[in-house]
Amino acid sequence: MKTYITSALLASTFLLASCASTGVAGIKRYTSDTCAVTDNKLGSMGDPVTKVYGNQEVKFCCKPCVAKYEKNPEKYAKNIR
Predict the structure, then answer these.
(1) What is the pLDDT of residues 11-63, one digit of tens each?
(2) Where are the domains of the chain?
């Protein structure tokens, strides 16, 4: 029984570690603490907005920034980290 529990704990540790860098189901996490559009600190305009485009998570300081990004995502691609 101890071997089973130890194996389960090890497996879950490796699984969680692999998710930390790519996020859920291979989605790349947005690691910056600033908005992809304005470079404002996330949370400075209320709760940040999180969206996923393709396999990339992107965070915004407010809903209007989502609309700006969606109009011209190439313009803001350099801000995604």
Answers:
(1) 554 444 444 445 567 999 999 999 999 999 999 999 999 999 999 999 999 99
(2) 2-79
pTM for the model stands at 0.69
> What residues contact 46, with CB distance under 8 A and at least 6 apart?
62
What gap in Å lies between CA 66 and CA 76, rounded to an integer?
11
| Pair 69, 36: CB distance under 8 Å | yes
Three state DSSP letters for 48-78 = CEEEEECCEEEEECCHHHHHHHHHCHHHHHH
List all residues 6 or more positions away from 12 whose beta carbon is below 8 Å from its beta carbon: none
CA dist., res. 63 & res. 20, Å (int): 26
Residue 33 DSSP class: S
